[in-house]
Predict the 3D structure of the following.
Amino acid sequence: MKKAIWLVLLIVTVGLLAACNSPQSSGEAGANNVSASKEEVENFPEKSITILVHTSAGGPTDLMAREIAKAVEPILGQKVLVENRPGGSGATQMAGIQSAKADGYTLGAMTPSQIGLIEGTLKDQYKLDDFSWISRTQIDPYVIVVNKKSPFNTLEELIEFAKENPGELKIGGYGAVGSGHNVAWNILAEKAGIEATWAAYESTGDAVTAILGNHIDVANSNPGQVSQYVESGDLKVLGVMNDERLEDLPEVPTYKELGYDVDTSWTQFRGIFGPAGIDPAIQKKLSDAFAEAMETEGYKEYMKKTQMVQGSMNNEEYTEYIAKQSELTKEWYERLGVE
């Protein structure tokens, strides 16, 4: 009898130890998930919201976060604060987002950088489902820029030279091989059948400085970063990676117009995301509020001043878009040999 009792106790003890030492279940992994009541959804938000930014103050993503925060405050009826969390090319901010309570009060500003981290250096740490994709807020198209003294006056001339002189052209842009700017250049290069040497810079501004000093032959940049130098005549824009010509650069043709049918879904976009598990009704409420904010006169004026392109997406559309961007990122990482 005693042996039987001891056997039962041993089995129970082993079972409890196994449960304690087993890997997290999906429920435990989503411990930050918040299921909001009908009343909580109706009253949301009841306090200030914070948007974490993965860059230092003053850059285009920081500016977007501050402009969208200012525009959405009257709509939500609460303060929307912006907090800069630079570090690790976005890793510091992502850690802050993922660990936050999924109640809709902690959000983040984002660019393709976060997707690159999820599919690149942090692929063992994060997956797309670790986050909620709330809203796409703008598009910042890629453009090809040369110095005023460059012999190239058209994209066709540049590509013809590159065909005749493989690898001689020095192309500069933000980030190493596999960055958004680098992939954008490679998408064009593949369609044109050319090769060039990539020069990586710490910021788009650094690449613009390099092209102004004639240290590189070509810069892959964005309109807002080069507009003042185009107006002054110091730089020439030869082409834009967009479906349509830009309102502020009407004389600049798209790649497709010139016969290079590139995938324009690869673009410099910005948006808002949050931790996984935010109640769907609160996600929709935030998404709708950001969409309304993007229609305000103040936000539209900011968009025009910085030469951004309207790119509003609700949370459902943005979630699908992010999944496609993730697949495209993985495809190009494989092509370029990015680990």
